[in-house]
Design a protein that fits this description.
0% strand, 19 helices, 483 residues
Length: 483
Amino acid sequence: MTIKKKVIQGVLWSILQNWGSQAGSLIVFLILARLLTPEDFGLLSLANVFLALMNIFLEQGFTSALIQRETLDPEHLDTAFWTQVITGVLLTLISFILAEAIANMFHQPLLIPIIKYFSFLFIINSFGHVFQGILRRELNFKIMAIRSLIAIFISGILAIFFACLGFGVWSLVIQQFVFESVIVLVMWKAVNWRPKFRFSYPHFQDLFNFSIYVLLFQFINFFERKSDNLLIGYFLGEIALGYYTIAYRILEVMIQLLVGTINQVALPTFSRLQKESDAFRQAFLQAIQFTSLIAFPTFLGLLTLTPEIIITLFGKQWIPSIPVLKILTFMGILSALSYFNWSVFLALGKPYLRLWFSLLNVIISFTVAFWVVKWGIVAVALAFVISSYLVFPLSLLVLTKLISIPLKQYLQQFITPLISSFVMVFAIFLVKYFLGIYFNTIILLLVSTVIALISYTVSIKLINPPLFKELVNIVSLILAKKL
């Protein structure tokens, strides 16, 4: 199978994985949001901050290193596997020791048993990262899609069941524990490779020379993504963190749906094309244009319809999340663009570039957020969005120089999506202004969505007929493709 066919197949299965899994997880999330309280979500978010930090040291960037390498020896896989298993055992022991201290820091004694139970996930996850690297390297997103859907279904059903029984935050703990376990089990069943009991220091060093930059990036990126939770949880409490978590969760789902679908395929695809400059540039430009065609209208539409979406999906008890989500939508727009910058840096063997830009971003965002946290969760969200927009132009400048793409050519990819999105937003405002007093929230949301789709599609056809025709051809290819 050619690289082009593998990429198309990978994108299709990545779409199924992301859209199917995110749709399933969102449905479960919506149900749980009506059964549980902001305190429950706040407690789990605090526990997940610690879990996410420790998982960085578990994965160590080896997955990306395995994907990026042009040639891969069996010793690479065995060495990476046993390194992570040993690390998983050590992290479990460390988590047990630190559980009480972490809970005391946030004045939340309920965190102690949650962190202790979560510590076993380090051992479970240590058995899966190499298998994930193999699947992604081979662009085998079919298995990854199947494992995600199975895991979400089983863990979601159990979470809802225990929430109905009154287990509270423990229903969320059970959900996460079952989800991670099923993910690993399905990959072990699907992949033929099995580790041999051997360790090669030269192969470890070979992987580590690349993965150290990924590890450092992930460590810095952790503070970039989770320091808002730390600050809110410490200074404002678990209730405020619960409201913030709902808004941020919606953002994460949308980013994963829109960006994650293509970004999963981007790194292995760019890595295969790293020595073909023209093909590399073409693939990059197509990726950012097609992503912006979906991301721009989605996040601008989300911004326009935030109150209706929050109230319809979660209920009026989550109204404090509305202003936070409005601000975070601007983060979503930028994420749709910046994700591909990081994939390019990794594919070309320059992970240190992503590291330095992330370090700059986290320094600015944490400093500003620490200063404004006293004004509430809206101020914290605004601090993180502003810092991202300050750093992005610098990374873009380096990127255009690195792959020899004129800035004008880069920006041209966004003209049609941006103009069409503004037309769509104007159409939504008209619907809300003239029909808002006649319809309830649900009907207004449905009518606005339909008008948005029509106005956006028509705008693309009128502004850029060749692009519209290309999109129609791609959709036809996807519908006709037999996997």
